[in-house]
Structure formats: C-alpha cells, structure tokens
Amino acid sequence: MKTEDNIQQEIDELVEILNRHCHRYYVLDAPEISDEDYDMLYNRLKDLELQSGYIRADSPTQRIGHKPLEKFQSLRHREPMYSLDNVFSVEELREFDKRICRLIDCRGDMQYAVEPKYDGLAVELTYVKGVLQRASTRGDGYVGEDITSNIKTLKTVPLSIKHLKIVPEEIDIRGEVYMDIADFNALNQERLSRGEAVFANPRNAAAGSVRQLDPSITALRRLQIACYGVGFFSTIELKTQQDLMQWLEEARLPTPLEFSVVSGIESVIDRVNYIQSKREGFPFQTDGVVIKVNDMSTQRRLGVKTREPRWAVAYKFPSHKAVTRIMNIQPSVGRTGKVTPIALLEPVRIGGVTVSRASLHNWDEVKRKDIRIGDLVVIERAGDVIPHLVEVLVHRRTGSEQVVEPPLRCPVCNSVTLRNPDEVALRCINMNCPAQAIERIRHFASKAAMDIEGLGIKTVELFYQNNLIRHFSDLFSLKKEDLEKLPGFGERSASRLIEAIESSKETTLARFLVSLGLPHLGEFASRLIAGHFQNIEDLYGIKAESFVELRQVGNKTARSLEEFFGSPENIEAIEKLKEIGLRLTNPDFQGLAEENAQTFVITGTHPVPRSEIKDMLQRAGFRVSESVSPKTDYLLAGEKAGSKLKRAKELGVKIIGYEDLKDIIEGMQKQLTGAKIAVKDNRLFD
Ligand code: IVH
Fold first, then answer.
1. Within a domain: 75
2. How many domains in the chain?
3. CA distance linking residue 165 with residue 168, whole number of Å
4. How would you classify the pairing of strands 170-178 and 121-128?
5. Is 631 a catalytic residue?
6. Which residue has the least CA distance to atom 17 on ligand 1?
7. pLDDT tens-digit profile of 18-72?
8. 564 pocket-lining for ligand 1 (C-beta < 6 Å)
9. Which of 43, 99, 514, 616 is most buried, with most CB under 10 Å away?
10. pTM higher than 0.90 for the full model?
C-alpha cells in the first residue's frame, strides 16, 4: 500500500516531469516523449490527485476545468502598464535617439534592445513563490481584467517556475497574447462552416479568445504568448532587457523572435530593416518593431511622459490595409459545389501585392455586413492572411450601390442551388456541374495532392472545354498528340506535362487521400489515416466506428471515409487506377507499434548511453517511457538504479538487465510482424 507521503512524492515528480515536457513540446518544439506517453503520465497524475486530494496549483491538470465566470473581476497592476509612442520613419527614429541623448547626456552610443512588435493583446502574469498566481489584461493601464483561468489554458505559459536556481518571491511579467496566422485562418474556416461570424484579423481573434468568460472556449483556441517586459519584481537581479530575456528563457517563458541588442541608432535601423524583410515569413502577424533602451536604470532615469515611456518606441510598418471599391460580387463554385460570393475589387496595392479579389465567405456574411456592389471598403492583407474585407465605408455611399441576393441557380450549369438547413453554405446540387468537375481535377493535381507540375486551373479548364477530360482519372489516358493540338501547347510542353502526369502515378497513400477531395479530409487527417492503415485496401468498406481509437480523427472525417469507401463504384475506380499504374507507397505508416507495443523504462547506468538503448528499443517497436506505472512492462535497471527500481518492485514490473535486452528485442520483432497482420485482417471485416 502506498502511504500518503509516497503519493505526494509521486505527484510532485509527475508535475515536474509533465511541466518540463510541456515546455519542450510547445515552446522548444522538441518533444522527448510521445503524445501517448504524455497522456499516460497525465492520467496517472489525475488519478493520484483524485485519490489523495493533493492538487498543486502548478499541476497541468489545473489548466482546464475552471467554471465559466459571470463577469471578469478587476485587477490593479502594481506598476502601470504603459503604451508606446509610434514612429513611421527612420528620421523619427534618429530623433528618438537624439532626444534620449539630450535628456541624459549619453557618452558614446546608446544600447538598444530591438524585437518585433506582436499584434495581440497585452497581459500581465504574476508569479508568487514560483507559482502562476494571477493574470490580467492591460485594461486602462492601471486596472485590467482578471483572466487567470483563461491564461492557464495556454500550454506555453508555465504554471510553475520553481525549477529556477533563484525563485523570485514575486514577479510581474508582461507579454503579448497572440494567435499564429495559420491558426487564425483555420479558426475562421471552422467558424464559417458553423455559420458564425469570422474574426477580422489575428489580433481580434486573440483578444476575443482571451476575453471569454468560459475558459473551456479559450482552451480550444491555439493562443501563443511572447513575453517582453517586467513590472514589479523581487529577490532576483535584472539590469538590462538582455538579462530579462535570458531570465525569461530560463523560466521557460516564450520570448520574442529575433530579439537583439545593438549599439547606436544606425545599427537599430539595420535591425529594423532586417526584421521588416523577414516579417512575411513569421508565423505571426507583426505591425512593427519595438526599440527599447537596454539598461533598466537608464530607463528609470528617462521616465514616462503621460502614458508612454521615453525609453521605448514602436516603429510601425506601412499599413497592410487599403481602401478600394467593389466592382462586382460574383458567385464562384467550388469542388464540393459550394457557391461562394467573391468581391471583384478595383485593383489595389497592399504591402507590395496587388489585390483584386476578396472572398466574402458566404451569403449570410454579405447580408450581415450589408456589403453592396459599388461600396468603398477597407481591405486588409497581412502575411498569409487571405485578403479580408474589414469594413464597409457606409458613410461614403452615394445611393447607387446595389444589393446582391444569393443566386437561385448555379452560375455555371444553371442547376438550382440549395441550402441544407444545418449548413451556411449554398450548394449547386448538380454532381456533374462542370465547375465542380474542373475544381475537383484541379484539386487532384494540386501541390498537396498528386502534385502534377504544370496542371493549373487554366490548363484543366482548357482540357475540359475540349472534351479531353471529365474526371481526374481521365488525366491518365491523355495523349501527347491530344495536347499538341491545343492552343498554347507545343511538342515540348505537351510531353513535359504527360511525363509529369505519368510520374505522379507513383505517390503516397496520404497524398492520394488528399487528392480525392473528400469533405473533412485535408492534409493533416490524411497523414493521420496513412499512419494507421498501411494499404488503401485496408480502408475498403471501413466503418466510421473503426476510427474511434484514432482520437484525432473527428466524426465527420470518419463518416466521410465510410461513405466514400463504402461505395463499390469508388472502389472500382481506384482499382482501375491501380491497373493503369497507380502505385501507392506509405512512408507515413507507423504500424500498430504505438498502440500495442510493450513499454520500457530505463534507469541507472548501462554499458552504452541511454539514448542509444532508447533508439534501439524504439526501432524494434517498443515504447520507451519516463516513469514507472502499472502500464510498464519492463524496467531496464542498470547500476545505481534508485526510486524507479523501488517503484517497479512495488508494482511487480519485470526487471531486466542490459544483457537480457538482445533476446527480448529479437523475440518481440518476430511477434510484432505476426501481430500486425492478424489485427489488420480483423479490421477489414468489422
Ligand atoms: S513593450 C512600456 N514590446 O504594443 C513598453 N510592447 O502599442 C511596453 N507590444 O501595449 C510595451 N509587442 O501590448 C512591447 N515586443 C513588444 C511588443 C509590445 C507588442 C504591444 C503592447 C503594448 C503595445 C503598444
């Protein structure tokens, strides 16, 4: 029987292990253990907490499970959170530097910290005795809102910083909560499919997600944080921004990308230009660069003028917004028959790119925002964010603007359009609609799918109009002679395309799944499926229930696969493709090792490094875990084995030495090959 002390000790260990892995996974992007192992340790911790009632404030189980609030409580910042003065040119940056030197008579070049300005929502995190105690929004700079439960759902925010050599008694950290562009785009897609209003930009999405009364909603949004400042702190010493960055990293708090400290304003300007040249490649949205005096005592001497410190400034990039006119609103038909409104714009340059179209997403959105032909509108485009209509300038209307109604008929094939009661999308119901067929073929050939070089939308349209193709499988019967006759094709370009189509026949299962263009089956889900099913035939006749064990595959994806692979015509079509040379390899297949494998824990010292043993075991299909639990099959114990050996004995886990390893590996390899086949067969007929 475990004593209470034992349990508490194990809980302490688990909290420490899980928090460390969380940081490796989410902040450093360098996980050391599998998701399954993480879940196993997490569940063990949860059980122990339930059993003992001993729940630490920094336990990862405390990230979720808080009840919705009625309203936010107010929290006063111990030191005000200031805002920043903006500058828009390098001349103004030089003036900023000159002003500083006038004020404090600097000898030589001033040292500045330079980093991107994150476009999100400013927050303050308070750690007391190393535990995250409170979190608040900036509010009016003096009083903000208590968003502690919401911030705790951010996996990159450590709940504890007790691992530091010196744990500060108290510290207030400042940072920006933001959303990566890819997550923002995905969130908007999801909202559209549920018929909800889209967020105008990643900043609004981040702010809207943080300011949720129900933390379980915040938990579903992928929010990030970049910590860049400090308010009140005690016990530790921080003299410069650079010290602060180093401390934040040791504390496992995320810091701004491309942080640097440079001497003199000309070097600052170089850094600003460098960050500006890199910004399109950043995963997040940035609207400028923040420049701060590096030395904190100099910061204090310079002080604050009303609301902005004299020691810092934001250099703002030229805006990514522009005003233009909607020339027309046209319906466009996608591969699933979805009829989407597209605004054709008077072309306008935004951040070096000419924008002439913007998706208006769906007809509800057009109505909600009252978007009319002829309207002047504000368009925003940033990084990979799809050009987005931010605002209709209603006060600029002349009265000649035209309201558009959703089309009753498909603009391409003239079939009726329908709207399912549980959907926002309007669809063309004709499966043979040329627009749908063309879009399906284009999708089939696209980069993430079969990746047929040179087969873009224009070429697909050309082939379709010339009756060369009706379905993507027709691509494989195209002849060089057919293409040579078409406008824009010569002998060389025709044979190049035929070659590209030919070589696309050899592809991966994941790519082929993507190319089918099934609803709810994108790149991510396809890779996941390919990870678990070695051959496409394993999917024939599959039932949605078979995906239940693959936790990341959602119900809709499972139904979509069931429907497609349940149709004899579809299977016949795939078989035909195989006959004409389609060959699917599957490098994504991970086998059933992950699910069924036996688990090893390694402890003590061994004749070869632990990492090598771990490698060897994993290659043989075993799992290697960090801590001993009832699910552990073997403990590989070397010299100086300690608490893990003790626990393994308590739990009756098989204990082996390095010399036993070879036999076990060989034995398991044989078994595993057999097991895979048996389970696979079973699945075909369930
Ligand atoms: S420092 C007193 N650094 O920009 C200086 N702010 O426009 C306080 N922001 O309220 C701010 N990225 O929310 C700083 N790297 C960064 C920043 C940053 C974004 C935000 C912050 C601030 C606003 C001012």
1. no
2. 6
3. 10
4. antiparallel
5. no
6. 117
7. 999 888 888 877 778 888 788 889 989 999 998 899 999 899 988 865 677 778 8
8. no
9. 514
10. no
